[in-house]
């Protein structure tokens, strides 16, 4: 599943082609993806201008001049290709080959600036929806969703407020989208390693008896932002099928310190530990037993 940096990478790639342009034609090639398309999906888009393109957690949000928001989720293998001025972005250097093919081009957006944006999704786990802007925060996609990890709200104090009294393992708490939205398995493993926190430690251990954030809580908030921003700058981890809109895959995976490095030596200078793997809630966790006690 693409994580927040992958989605932010796609947003930044799509924005120049979409923002300020109108949908002149929308080709919907099937009735559904993971869920059915909204009623009159293509007709509700045609003629509308994209006034902004944002992101909420792992969702892309295109504000339209009609007052509706085009909500887009990439699922596991969704990708966009942008064609403009006779040139189509083609796949470049891949960590693992995406494998998108024309039979899986499910939606084609033609825009007034000459750009054509194709949504390709081999597994069809992605989806699109149209939601009135005033209802976006309370709609089924975002109701109850936690804070943005890249926003100003994430701090040691916020972590203390969210985690106080929780015996839930720290990694599970960080992956709880009701608390912090958009964090995924890869970057939580990396953030916990950099902070020196064990993934099985109780989430409440980051809060003092007086309800104040510990020093580690402050550090964790900063490290989460750092890890995500580094991944966005590098183009995301882009494992398996996920690609940037220009067809290339990012290279943040080459910077992983623990993720997917089971049995390899810890990269911390002076540490003689070995990266280990454990399973939490059915998902692999990678960590250094010596650095993260």
TrEMBL record:
Keywords: DNA damage, DNA repair, DNA-binding, Glycosidase, Hydrolase, Lyase, Metal-binding, Multifunctional enzyme, Zinc, Zinc-finger. Its cofactor is Zn(2+). Pfam families: Fapy_DNA_glyco, H2TH, zf-FPG_IleRS. Monomer. The gene is mutM. Residues 257-293 form the FPG-type domain. Involved in base excision repair of DNA damaged by oxidation or by mutagenic agents. Acts as DNA glycosylase that recognizes and removes damaged bases. Has a preference for oxidized purines, such as 7,8-dihydro-8-oxoguanine (8-oxoG). Has AP (apurinic/apyrimidinic) lyase activity and introduces nicks in the DNA strand. Cleaves the DNA backbone by beta-delta elimination to generate a single-strand break at the site of the removed base with both 3'- and 5'-phosphates. PANTHER family: FORMAMIDOPYRIMIDINE-DNA GLYCOSYLASE. NCBIfam families: fpg, PRK01103.1. GO terms for molecular function: class I DNA-(apurinic or apyrimidinic site) endonuclease activity; oxidized purine nucleobase lesion DNA N-glycosylase activity. Signal peptide: none annotated. HAMAP family: Fapy_DNA_glycosyl. Belongs to the FPG family. Binds 1 zinc ion per subunit. The active site is at residues 2-3, 58, 283. It comes from Microvirga terricola. This is Formamidopyrimidine-DNA glycosylase. CDD domains: EcFpg-like_N. Residues 2-126 form the Formamidopyrimidine-DNA glycosylase catalytic domain. It catalyses: Hydrolysis of DNA containing ring-opened 7-methylguanine residues, releasing 2,6-diamino-4-hydroxy-5-(N-methyl)formamidopyrimidine; 2'-deoxyribonucleotide-(2'-deoxyribose 5'-phosphate)-2'-deoxyribonucleotide-DNA = a 3'-end 2'-deoxyribonucleotide-(2,3-dehydro-2,3-deoxyribose 5'-phosphate)-DNA + a 5'-end 5'-phospho-2'-deoxyribonucleoside-DNA + H(+). The keyword Signal does not apply. DNA binds at residues 104, 123, 166. Its EC number is 3.2.2.23, 4.2.99.18. The keyword Zinc-finger applies.
